[in-house]
Amino acid sequence: MKSCKSNNVDSGLESDMQCKSGTGCIMKCSSERMESAAKRRLAANARERRRMQGLNTAFDRLRKVVPQWGQDKKLSKYETLQMALSYIMALTRILAEAERYSTERDWINLHCEHFHQESYHTYMGQKMTIDSDPYAQRIFSYQPEHFQIAN
DNA sequence: TAGGCCATCTGGTCCT
DNA sequence: AGGACCAGATGGCCTA
């Protein structure tokens, strides 16, 4: 006759003795096993919930640093990832372009005529001005390819 | 009301 | 054995 001990730490001496007695063992063992399985399931559910909440927190943080291009509606998870991808690619392109010139001033002078001040977007509640941050203006006047699906 | 988005539950798989 | 991660199922909420 199998003891319940291996399956249930909480069962203790009493259940171990009952199992050895035979008759009620199968029912008690199975009900205890079901009970502990249910407990484990609930714990797993809670962990999964916490994990998904962590994931959603990360998505919220990502939404805050990704430009929304005037959209007032909250980006979906899929849209957030697509926008982040476009944004990173745009920044990478701008960075690569900037590195081709020896000084920041050369690069700014070269591109000054392309700045469109009226198209600047506010970013995280801060309006950029041409004097304060020309790099940021260049970045935010750049319109990335709209949601190209990356395969 | 259909479709999109999301949260949650659940069982399976992999890793420690 | 238990935790992390994943994908499918399901039901709720919202919007056009």
UniProtKB/TrEMBL annotation:
GO terms for molecular function: DNA-binding transcription factor activity, RNA polymerase II-specific; E-box binding; protein dimerization activity. InterPro entries: ATOH7_bHLH, bHLH_dom, bHLH_transcription_factors, HLH_DNA-bd_sf. It is found in: Cell projection, Axon; Nucleus; Perikaryon. Keywords: Cell projection, Developmental protein, Differentiation, DNA-binding, Neurogenesis, Nucleus, Transcription, Transcription regulation. The keyword Transmembrane does not apply. The gene is ATOH7. It comes from Alligator sinensis. The lineage of its organism: Eukaryota, Metazoa, Chordata, Craniata, Vertebrata. Its main location: other. This is Protein atonal homolog 7.
